[in-house]
Design goal:
It is a single chain. By secondary structure, this protein is an alpha+beta fold. It contains 7 helices and 6 strands. It has one domain: Cytochrome P450 (Cytochrome p450, Orthogonal Bundle). The chain has a two-stranded antiparallel sheet. A two-stranded antiparallel ribbon has the order 2-3. A hairpin with an 8-residue loop joins strand 2 and strand 3. Its cofactor is heme. It holds the Pfam family p450.
Amino acid sequence: MIIAGRDTTRTLLSWFLYAIYDKPDIKAKIMQEINNMVFFFFFNLLSPLCGVMEYTALLYAKKKKKRLKYLEAVLLETLRLFPPVPILARMAKKDVELPGGKDEKKYTIREGNMVMIHVWSQARNPKYFEDPSKFDPMRWYEQGVAAFPPHMFPQFNIAPRLCLGRTFALLEAKIFACHFLKTFDYTPVDTEEPRVEGGPILNMTDGYRVHLTPLKQA
């Protein structure tokens, strides 16, 4: 599961840093939420391994009350606009007849046909998301991944093929984001919009290269 999530989590975090860089209000809210978490006191005292354990223990309380809700909302909005896997492919196990549109013409998907789901385009469809081009983490703030029906947000696939590592991937991304943003300030090396590689993963052609500036720890 860890190996399978390597490229997708890496891609998510690259786009996350890209998405928030020019949005100081969003970044400030993330930092405020992080700074309100008491675990940073422990993290500065303990070894890196113990620090990670402390992160994990405190990110999710025993009563399943989620912490860092706003950071999670920002990560989910990043996933919406920049899905690490922009296209899903499925093969029909049997013939399926779909209802027609305005022309009332029905469509038949034959057994063995490949069906492509363009996740990237779906996330930008105003039929599903209000003002879809706007980066708005508040879409997710109250309910997280449950904010929209599964078919509107298939970034982690849909049951029974729901990604087993969904919770782990978000937790992993939170841990990285917390530690990175608490430790470094960053500026992009390139000021141009990143180009995207063709392929199964939404990679930036040259990666997301940044200049890092260590932050003074309180």
